[in-house]
Design goal:
Number of helices: 12
Radius of gyration: 19 Å
CATH architecture of the largest domain: 3-Layer(aba) Sandwich
CATH superfamily of the largest domain: NAD(P)-binding Rossmann-like Domain
Helix content: 40-55%
Low-confidence stretches: none
CATH topology of the largest domain: Rossmann fold
Order of helices and strands: EHEHEHEHEHEHEEHEEHEHHHH
Strand order of the largest sheet: 3-2-1-4-5-6-9
Oligomer: single chain
Bound molecules: NADP nicotinamide-adenine-dinucleotide phosphate
Mean pLDDT: 96
Largest sheet: 7 strands, parallel
Strand content: 15-25%
Shape: globular
CATH class of the largest domain: Alpha Beta
Number of domains: 2
Number of strands: 11
Length: 287
């Protein structure tokens, strides 16, 4: 049986949707915190088990009879490393053979606080656990672009703090599809994959594509990190969140998310969504 954690979240739900296209529902287990959010999965015949990463005994119960599992990383601003250690220990105790973990892309050794530190700790813990592992170094989601540039775009210019840095954006649904292929195919024991787009884009590219779609000039202005934080706070975000967004800008400037990779393209068997396609369907659906 294959178990997916975070099954009511953005990535986990899509992984299960993709798994259902190739795998019997009776072979899939969805681990969730709130079963009320998983009625649709139950209706499709998926086994739903309740557990929290902080509840060790519930995790051991949830993992009974599971051969392979996907650990969807916990959210930022929580004790991610501790939660992940619990899941890894419980998987081992329950007899899970193979655990795949959703880490973060690292084209450089830039460390994004709140994300990379706990991912590095989890990767090391998983490798030392004795479980068969696969580490998925996931790229920045296209769906997260609006968080960085603000919902006022494309009605205003882009004011961000990424310099000339690039991101090999990946669409979360395609990342999920690629992950489902990895979960259902052989040969990924103790491997690490970078799951990102086949092309990387700067924020000048984002501005250029938006301009082409809108038929008017939309520019990208690189601003200082502190000005960006002020701008986000003025838009209503708590300062800690504004600083978190700004860190992604710093990571971009340092090239942490810049290296394209063809693994997703190979797993999908087609070109992943391009920047222009993503912007068109998201910002100009009727165009
Ligand atoms: N690469 C990127 O651009 C990017 C962007 C955002 C996040 N991420 C990372 O990738 C992960 C997956 O992304 P996503 O879009 O699926 O995020 P998401 O929609 O926030 O989903 C996170 C999932 O993890 C579950 N979860 C969180 N804490 C848990 C706990 N203590 N015990 C059990 N389950 C817990 C949540 O449960 P509930 O459904 O009950 O809330 C949710 O299902 C995120 O958690 C984060 O680590 C990556």
């Amino acid at each position: 049986m294959i178990l997916v954690t975070g099954a009511t979240g953005g990535l986990g739900r899509q992984v299960i949707k993709s798994l259902l296209t190739t795998t019997a529902a009776s072979e899939i287990v969805a681990m969730v915190r709130d079963v009320n959010k998983a009625t649709d999965l139950k209706e499709q015949g998926v086994t739903v088990r309740q557990a929290d990463y902080l509840d060790y005994e519930a995790l051991v119960q949830a993992f009974q009879g599971v051969d392979k599992m996907l650990l969807v990383s916990a959210v930022a601003f929580t004790d991610r490393a501790r939660q992940h250690r619990n899941v890894i220990d419980a998987a081992k105790q329950a007899g899970v053979k193979h655990l795949m973990y959703t880490s973060i892309q690292r084209s450089t050794n830039f460390v994004l606080t709140e994300v990379t530190e706990s991912d590095l700790a989890t990767e090391a813990y998983l490798k030392a656990s004795g479980l068969v592992y696969t580490i998925l170094k996931n790229g920045y989601y296209f769906e997260g672009l609006a968080y960085l540039i603000g919902s006022e775009v494309p009605n205003t210019e882009i004011r961000f703090t990424a310099g000339e840095g690039k991101i090999a954006f990946v669409k979360r649904t395609e990342l999920a599809e690629a992950t489902a292929v990895l979960l259902t195919s052989a040969g990924h024991e103790n491997q690490e994959y970078t799951l990102v787009g086949s092309e990387a884009y700067s924020f000048h590219d984002v501005a250029r594509e938006l301009s082409a779609l809108a038929g008017r000039s939309i520019t990208y202005r690189d601003i200082a990190l502190e000005s960006y934080v002020e701008q986000k706070v003025a838009a209503g975000f708590p300062e800690v969140v504004a600083r978190f967004f700004a860190q992604w800008g710093a990571a971009t400037q340092h090239g942490m998310l810049a290296e394209p990779d063809e693994t997703v393209e190979h797993l999908l068997g087609r070109k992943p969504t391009s920047l222009r396609e993503y912007l068109k369907t998201t910002y100009f659906p009727g165009f």
